[in-house]
Design goal:
GMP Synthetase, Chain A, domain 3
């Protein structure tokens, strides 16, 4: 259960990180789009789990590995952006959000269900 403070901080991080990935997506893979689907913050605001969704990316794990290898750079950039709004820049942990793939798979299964003869 998140507090109001955690929710506000998560929205701030989601907005700023979204701007970062909008500008820098070409450095991770040309022609791709990376979006932030969810940011979850620990109660002490020191840890953030960032869930990423990838579009037009063939190897999501390779792109995620590039992002994880540049976490310190992303955190430093984020700290510069939110320095007047937040006292602490959280440690960032990135994960692949596959909820869209799951929903797409369920939709595909529902649409391809064979009909029973009457």
């Amino acid at each position: 259960m998140s507090s109001l403070r955690q929710n506000k901080y998560a929205r701030l991080l989601q907005k700023e990180l979204g701007d970062y990935f909008l500008k820098e997506a070409r450095n991770f893979q040309a022609g791709s789009m990376i979006t932030i689907t969810v940011v979850r913050i620990s109660p002490d605001l020191a840890e953030a789990k960032v869930y990423l969704s990838f579009f037009q990316v063939k190897d999501r794990k390779a792109v995620l590995a590039k992002i994880i290898s540049r976490t310190w750079e992303i955190r430093r950039w984020l700290g510069e952006q939110i320095r007047h709004q937040a006292r602490v820049t959280p440690n960032l942990h990135f994960y692949i959000d596959d909820s869209l793939d799951y929903a797409e798979n369920i939709d595909r299964l529902l649409n391809t269900t064979p009909t029973l003869p009457l």
